[in-house]
Design goal:
With about 220 residues, the chain is α/β, with parallel strands linked by helices. The protein has 9 helices and 7 strands, in the order αααβαβαβαβαβαββα. Helix content is about 45%, strand content about 20%. It has a 7-stranded mixed β-sheet with strand order 3-2-1-4-5-7-6, sandwiched between helices. β1, α4 and β2 (about 90-95) form a beta-alpha-beta unit. The chain starts with a helix and ends with a helix.
């Protein structure tokens, strides 16, 4: 994307919170590589490849939803989503201490009302503390089969998992469809988000968590 098109897209996505988005990008630009959050080649494409790419998943998130972002890392997609959608109640879940420290710094510097938890989605205590989310998000964490097993237990029945994926998303859906079902998920669907805003829309796989009776039926 050209600088002009990035600027237009950023203002469209973030509106009057563009200053927070710009501050986040600057934090990533200055500290991201040295702190092992992004690769050196990503510095020049933070907006289109990471920040805008993440924020537009808000198109699939209901108003006022409680969201758990699994494996937040540098804060993607949770931080851009929190900036673009202040109506959401967002928890960033990250297992690595140094990244938890980074996320806490970002939340403080940007004055974002987000909760940061150190842990893994598959841990019993994490599921007890954070379960029942309306939406669980993940970006570049794992293949769908593993992701569904880790993340769907954090969603309430009929809640959803939103997995940001790349060009092979459709193939991954076909390959992992049965594994997703065994983890309590419904039929995965692939959507483009950011159409008309980004030159290359983001791809997100949406997986509903089935209610318990439907899960039992699916195992017969």
């Amino acid at each position: 994307m050209s600088l002009d098109s990035v600027a237009v897209a950023a203002r469209t996505v973030f509106g009057d919170r563009i200053d927070q988005a710009e501050a986040y990008v600057e934090l990533l630009r200055v500290h991201g590589v040295e702190r092992g959050l992004i690769g050196p080649r990503e510095v020049d494409r933070l907006w289109e490849r990471h920040v805008l790419n993440s924020a537009v998943i808000g198109e699939r998130v209901p108003k006022g939803a409680r969201v758990v972002d699994v494996g937040s890392g540098a804060g993607l997609p949770g931080v851009p989503l929190a900036i673009a959608r202040p109506d959401l109640d967002i928890v960033l879940l990250e297992p690595m201490a140094r990244r938890v420290e980074w996320l806490a710094e970002v939340a403080d510097k940007l004055d974002l009302p987000i909760t940061i938890v150190r842990g893994r989605a598959e841990e019993r205590q994490v599921r007890a503390d954070l379960g029942g989310a309306d939406v669980v998000t993940a970006r570049a964490v794992a293949p769908l089969a593993k992701l569904a097993g880790w993340c769907l237990p954090l969603a309430r029945p009929e809640g959803i998992l939103l997995a940001l994926k790349g060009a092979s998303a459709a193939e991954e859906i076909e390959r992992d469809r049965d594994a997703v079902r065994r983890s309590g998920g419904g039929t995965p669907e692939l959507f483009e988000v950011g159409t008309g805003v980004l030159e290359v829309p983001s791809l997100v796989v949406v997986i509903p968590r089935l209610p318990a009776p439907a899960r039992r039926k699916g195992k017969k």
